[in-house]
Write a structure and sequence with these properties.
The protein has 357 residues and is mainly α. It has a domain at 2-57 and 111-254. 73% of the residues lie in helices and 1% in strands. It contains 13 helices and two strands. A two-stranded antiparallel sheet has the order 1-2. Strand 1 (159-160) and strand 2 form a beta hairpin. The longest helix is centred in the N-terminal third of the chain and has 44 residues, at 13-56. The protein is globular. The model has no long low-confidence stretch (mean pLDDT 84).
């Protein structure tokens, strides 16, 4: 979001970063889920409008049909029109592009900041409408990926005014060059909405998890609701400081793209939360060691694979977090399955004791 706002305002990236974090973390701290429901609805509408604007901004590139479009990309770089790119650090083959993203996709739909949206429905009658709208809008958002190709066609050598564009500066440069001031501001606002809707969901779910599952259980006696809110706000403030520190480091010393930084943290979170959330949804009686073990295994496997460079796909300066996430999720599933087999009889015995009592 900083990379989108700072060039448009011609402002310091550090000041924009601090302003964004204070704003988003601040209204999440005091507004909670109620504010998120309304802000998300507004952001989604803006994002839909902006997605259409971005998609139709490149219609001129399709003069002559789809084959002509791919032909133009071929002239810039033959790899742009191929399914995989063996020379890329993150799009090399079927396993890296298709299989890993499929596994990560399974984990994404079980994440707290995604599931909380469904909890905002007024009744079960709204479920089908919710799913239909979600599928249509998601397909629209996926089509925005073509805008990256439009930007490459407009800036074949990825330079602007003789200066090489950093990876995270390409989209903002495309928007500023392609649209006039009014439409450009709307598009920038839509891009910010996409980031804000994800960020506020993560802030709420992570702070709630830290507060309810880590801090509050450490108190021996019951504490008041006001004190719980105070603790949660303190956690959000701490997360805000961490967010500024980590983000600024990426701004001054980028590792290819902010996407790598974001995926590294989020995919680790996805991997750790996948099995506990899945088990919580689909099982009633299960020993607590099953989800706990799966989470520990996921975290260990993820960071060992990524930072220990334990696979071909996670070696070198640029490493693919999706691969580490895939290994972690598969390991977590295996660990949960093994622990379930070992604890199944114990769980059944405890359940029978409760029934008898």
């Amino acid at each position: 979001m900083v990379k989108v706002i700072a060039p448009a305002l011609q402002a310091s990236e550090l000041y924009v970063l601090i302003g964004l974090v204070v704003f988003v973390f601040g209204y999440t701290m005091y507004g909670g889920a109620n504010s998120m429901a309304y802000t998300n609805a507004f952001q989604a509408i803006v994002m839909g409008v902006v997605a259409l604007i971005l998609i139709f901004s490149g219609t001129g590139h399709f003069d002559g049909g789809l084959s002509a479009f791919w032909g133009k990309l071929n002239q810039i770089d033959p790899m742009l029109s191929k399914t995989f790119n063996p020379t890329s650090p993150i799009f090399r083959d079927f396993f890296e592009v298709i299989f890993c993203n499929f596994i990560i996709g399974l984990a994404i739909v079980c994440q707290p900041h995604i599931i909380t949206r469904s909890l905002m429905l007024r009744s079960s009658k709204d479920i089908n409408k919710y799913l239909a709208i979600a599928i249509v809008v998601e397909m629209l958002f996926f089509m925005v990926l073509f805008v990256g190709l439009f930007a490459r066609l407009d800036m074949p050598d990825l330079t602007l005014a003789g200066k090489k564009l950093p990876m995270d500066g390409i989209m903002s440069a495309y928007v500023l060059e392609r649209f006039d001031t009014g439409v450009g501001l709307l598009v920038i606002f839509g891009l910010l909405s996409a980031g804000l809707s994800t960020l506020e969901g993560l802030v709420q779910s992570v702070s709630t998890t830290v507060t309810n599952d880590i801090i509050l259980p450490s108190f021996k006696s019951e504490i008041s609701e006001d004190r719980k809110k105070l603790i949660n706000r303190g956690v959000i403030m701490l997360l805000a400081v961490i967010a500024i520190t980590v983000s600024y480091r990426q701004l001054v010393s980028p590792n290819l793209s902010v996407a790598i930084l974001g995926q590294n943290g989020v995919y680790a979170f996805f991997s750790a939360a996948f099995m506990p959330v899945l088990l919580g949804i689909f099982t009633k009686n299960i020993h607590k060691s099953v989800p706990i073990t799966s989470t520990i295994v996921a975290v260990v496997v993820y960071f060992s694979t990524y930072y220990g460079q334990l696979s071909f796909y996670t070696t070198g300066v640029i490493r693919n977090p999706a691969v580490a996430g895939t290994y972690a999720i598969l390991a977590a599933i295996l660990a949960a399955g093994i622990m379930y087999l070992f604890t199944r009889n114990k769980t059944n015995i405890n359940s029978q004791k409760i029934i008898n009592a």
